Amino acid sequence: MGKAPPRPKAEPAWRRVHAHLRAAIIAGTIPPGSFLEEEAVSAEVGVSRTPVREAFQRLEAEQFIERLPRRGVRVRAATAQELIQLYETRRVIERFVVGEIAARRIAVPDTLDTLLARMAAPRRTPDLTLQAEGDFTFHRTLVAAIGNTVMLGVFDGLHQRQLRVAMRAIALNPARLVLIHAQHAALLAALRRQDGAEAARILEAHLQPAPDILAGMDAAV
User: Fold this and answer.
1) Superfamily name with CATH number, domain 80-220
2) Which of 9, 64, 171, 214 is 20 to 30 A away from residue 161, measured at CA?
3) Separation of first and last alpha carbons in the chain
């Protein structure tokens, strides 16, 4: 008889806590400004308090939470400054990407058409997670298309922060989704025409934080 296949290692308890809290923070189920109690999280996830502390340390390093002296652990609000800095970083990466796609005549995947159609489908209430994840996937696909794995790794490092900031921005002004969808479609069309200058112009406008979003973010901090 052959040996039984090895059992998969159980996921560390702190990772389960981390994934649970991070998903809830990104989705807004745990809103900005909420305080997290070790004992309550421990009971909710079904683990001891030690992995909860380890998860808190990771979330703090990722800037999802902050420790306030004599007050405890609080969920951080995405700030206007954070949005500005995130977009500045993305502009540096993505301007290069769209230029490379146009100059090297790189084919843009057809899967993006399906993604954009799903994101733009009419809904009574916007699905914030769908929109934020879809936006990231759209731009990540373009970054991946040029084959620079180092640049893709840097972009992937923005993922969780991008989701948190994007979902808050969408929640502040859901009507802006119409413009965002139009910009995505226009960017895709420009890249398929190998029009690097037009693609760069659209991207520049796309990655400019709207004044009402910035004001709303700071007002809620």
Assistant:
1) GntR ligand-binding domain-like (1.20.120.530)
2) 9
3) 63
For the chain, the domains span: 13-75, 80-220
Structure confidence by residue, pLDDT tens digits, 107-149: 999 999 999 999 998 888 888 888 989 999 999 999 999 999 9
pLDDT digits (tens, 9 = 90+) for 155-186: 999 988 888 888 888 888 888 999 999 999 99
pLDDT beyond 70 at 221: no
* Pairwise CA distance, residues 127 & 130, whole Å: 5
- Please compute Rg for the chain using Cα positions: 20
Distance CA 147, CA 141 (A): 10
pTM of the entire predicted model? 0.80
CATH number listed for the domain at residues 13-75: 1.10.10.10
CA distances from 120 to 82, 145, 184, 202 (A): 26, 23, 10, 18
How many CA atoms lie within 13 Å of 160's alpha carbon, on the beta-carbon side? 16
